[in-house]
Write a structure and sequence with these properties.
CATH class: Mainly Beta
Mean pLDDT: 87
Oligomer: single chain
Distance between the termini: 43 Å
Structural class: mainly beta
Strand content: 35-45%
Radius of gyration: 18 Å
CATH superfamily: Cellobiose dehydrogenase, cytochrome domain
Length: 205
Amino acid sequence: MRRDAIILLISMVAIFSGCIQQESGQQVEQTVSSGAWKADGIIGPNEYSRSVHFHKPASNGYSGGDLVISWKNDAHYLYMALNGSTKGWIAIGFEPTEWMKDADIIMGTVENGKAIVKDEYSTGNYGPHPDDTDLGGTFDILEYGGRDVGGNTVIEFKRKMNTGDRFDKAFVPGQVVPIIWAMADTTMNDAKHNVAIGKGSLELQ
């Protein structure tokens, strides 16, 4: 019994000292979304109802960085913002089955002041993730925008909760959606993520 107590104490010390990072323990900030949504790359104080901050330190060839994901939804539409500490591309993948496989991926970047957003699907554990249209699907981002903000890239987009495309995940209110995310320091969308990668989950309203 004493040995079990000691092991438990050591584990708790490791977790709270940061030696063990539990992404499942991510802190979600909630507010009342009272502002109008606009895909302009400016995240207003009341534009979204929920946000979560991911941080990854430098390690194993990654330079490290931060990504804040903000979102709101109703029964019909999902609205989302990605704010990453990079001048390159940012990507989020919904509901992968294993590593990257079967992830519904939205990738965005800003080039010469113009946002570029891609609707993709990962066909393998480590990619590739071609455009949905290359696989026989459709481009289902209804509105999008973005801008460079200091050293960050901000991408905003809107899509249907259920697009009807087999290469998009269908969402329902109240669903907890597993995600993966990645960032690179280049706007070339075929370049490997080298800033940070991570995983987590988002709870829809």
